[in-house]
Design goal:
Elements lengths: L1 H15 L5 E2 L12 H7 L5 E4 L3 E6 L37 E6 L17 E3 L4 E2 L3 E2 L3 E2 L2 H4 L7 E3 L5 E3 L13 E5 L4 E3 L17 E4 L8 E5 L25 E2 L1
Parallel strand pairs: 12-14
Antiparallel strand pairs: 1-13, 2-3, 3-4, 4-15, 5-6, 5-11, 7-8, 9-10, 11-12, 13-14
């Protein structure tokens, strides 16, 4: 009997051990981790970050610090489109006046709100992040994607430059922090902190675990690992928010 009990304890210990850094209980630290320090440290100088202890305000002009054809020929940051790509009727970008307000301690929403057209977050350089939809709330199609630059971005009718997908200057095939969505949760590239592609993402495109920026397990999104329409671009975020969406003004 003693041998059986010992064997049971060994099996129990092995079953409870897990070398993966991901935590399956997504609410284990829900609403407890303050993201303020990381937000202030990671956003570029072109963005102005302020906090009152309960919420964080991020202001930006929405212009990228990297190369894009939308700077216009003659600009020091101009580079041509990918081969076969070109601008559509929206040929240029202009400074905006964005303010995104997010909770200092993001938490899961009781009802998960769908992302909509327009900004669903801000990248670290202050450029808005959009979902996988375009005008008319239709999915991005191959023709629209031919207006993207190397960053998976283009301007809208209001000359508002924004990212839809991964790209050369934000995240490619890596685990880089891209920015934060309007619910306060961070969004990372296609890979996890250990260099693997996460296999346990939930319906919102995220999971809970430690990252290079958060030593405590925190819910975070990942860019999709599906090659969208075989274009070489990967959608940053589709579907609903995990947390409670904050205001975004422009």
């Amino acid at each position: 009997m003693k041998k059986l009990n010992l064997l049971f304890l060994v099996i129990l210990q092995l079953g409870c051990s897990n070398s993966d850094s991901t935590v399956t209980n997504a609410t284990s630290t829900d609403g407890k981790i303050d993201i303020s320090t990381v937000v202030k440290a990671k956003y570029f100088n072109s963005a102005v970050v302020s906090t009152n202890g309960t919420s964080i305000s991020i202001k930006s002009n929405g212009l990228p610090e990297h190369k894009t054809p939308y700077w216009g020929v003659g600009n020091a940051l101009y580079e041509d489109f990918p081969t076969g790509y070109h601008a559509n009727v929206n040929t240029s970008m202009a400074a905006q006046n964005y303010t995104m307000t997010i909770p200092a301690k993001p938490s899961v929403a009781t009802t998960h709100e769908e992302t909509t057209l327009g900004a669903i977050g801000l990248a670290l350089n202050g450029v808005p992040i959009y979902n996988d939809r375009e005008g008319g709330n239709v999915p991005l199609d191959a023709l629209t994607i031919t207006t993207f630059d190397f960053s998976g971005a283009h301007p809208g009718p209001g000359k508002d430059y924004h990212y839809h997908t991964t790209g050369r200057y934000t995240t490619s095939d890596d685990a880089k922090l891209v920015g934060f969505l309007r619910d306060g949760f961070p969004i990372y590239g296609r890979k996890d902190n250990d260099g693997s592609y996460p296999s346990n993402l939930d319906a919102y495109g995220g999971h809970t675990g430690v990252t290079a920026d958060f030593s405590e397990a925190l819910y975070h999104y990942h860019a999709s690992n599906i090659n969208y329409l075989n274009t070489g671009y990967y959608v940053l975020k589709a579907g609903a928010y995990y947390g409670i969406k904050g205001p975004f003004t422009q």
